[in-house]
């Protein structure tokens, strides 16, 4: 497939775990594109709590029923994955101003590596703006209730992982 289709967006991340903020961003993106590929990075450097396969399965269950969404894992450079799926847009979420500098660097590098794809930033609804996967993991690890911040299947998986 030829890269650069502006009607296909890749939403990359580690998604360890997928949160309601991520789901909100997917729902915001769906009306803008013909297809949104939620792209789950293996990213062993981050030492994820869930394997790539587990994160893919959790995301598929949590995003089930949202039209035009596909979940795929990847173990290559994001630029290569974007080309592989033929996407013309890399979707990124911005929760706060503090995210901007890092996201700007990523967007600049991706523009260099895959110039046929544009980076688009979306913001989540205000009630999810403070939620991050790492915060959800930490609260869950210590027995805190994260049920309002994640899909029920993700909540069950977290409870199982950190019991």
TrEMBL record:
Q: Which UniProt keywords apply?
A: ATP-binding, Coenzyme A biosynthesis, Cytoplasm, Magnesium, Nucleotide-binding, Nucleotidyltransferase, Transferase
User: Which reaction(s) does its UniProt entry say it catalyses?
Assistant: (R)-4'-phosphopantetheine + ATP + H(+) = 3'-dephospho-CoA + diphosphate
Localization: Cytoplasm
Q: Name one GO cellular component term.
A: cytoplasm
Q: Gene3D superfamilies annotated for this entry?
A: HUPs (3.40.50.620)
Show the InterPro entries listed in the entry. Answer: Cyt_trans-like (IPR004821), PPAT (IPR001980), Rossmann-like_a/b/a_fold (IPR014729)
Cofactor(s) recorded for this entry are:
Mg(2+)
Enzyme Commission number(s) of this protein: 2.7.7.3
Residues of the site described as Transition state stabilizer: 22
Q: Which residues bind substrate?
A: 14, 46, 78, 92
Which EC class is this protein assigned?
A: transferase
Q: Which SUPFAM superfamilies match?
A: Nucleotidylyl transferase
Principal place of residence:
cytoplasm
Highest taxon in the source lineage:
Bacteria
Q: In which pathway does it act?
A: Cofactor biosynthesis; coenzyme A biosynthesis; CoA from (R)-pantothenate: step 4/5
What is a biological process (GO) this protein takes part in?
coenzyme A biosynthetic process
Q: Extract the GO molecular function terms from the UniProt entry.
A: ATP binding; pantetheine-phosphate adenylyltransferase activity
User: Which residues make up the binding site for ATP?
Assistant: 14-15, 22, 93-95, 103, 128-134
A Pfam cross-reference name: CTP_transf_like
Cytidyltransferase-like domain span: 10-138
Which proteins does it associate with, and in what oligomeric form? Homohexamer.
Which protein family is it in? Belongs to the bacterial CoaD family.
Its function, per the record, reads:
Reversibly transfers an adenylyl group from ATP to 4'-phosphopantetheine, yielding dephospho-CoA (dPCoA) and pyrophosphate.
Q: What is the protein named? A: Phosphopantetheine adenylyltransferase
């Amino acid at each position: 497939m030829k890269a650069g289709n502006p009607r296909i967006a890749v939403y990359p991340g580690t998604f360890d775990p997928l949160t309601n903020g991520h789901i909100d961003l997917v729902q915001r993106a769906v009306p803008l594109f013909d297809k949104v590929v939620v792209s789950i990075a293996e990213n062993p450097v981050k030492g994820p709590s869930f394997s790539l396969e587990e994160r893919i399965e959790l995301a598929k269950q949590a995003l089930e029923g949202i039209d035009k969404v596909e979940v795929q894992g990847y173990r290559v450079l994001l630029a290569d994955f974007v080309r592989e799926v033929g996407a013309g847009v890399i979707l990124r979420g911005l929760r706060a101003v503090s995210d901007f500098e890092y996201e700007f660097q990523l967007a600049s590098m991706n523009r260099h590596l895959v110039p046929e794809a544009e980076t688009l930033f979306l913001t989540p609804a205000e009630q999810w703006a403070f939620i991050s996967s790492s915060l959800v993991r930490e609260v869950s690890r210590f027995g805190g209730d994260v049920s309002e911040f994640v899909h029920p299947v993700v909540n069950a998986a977290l409870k199982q992982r950190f019991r």
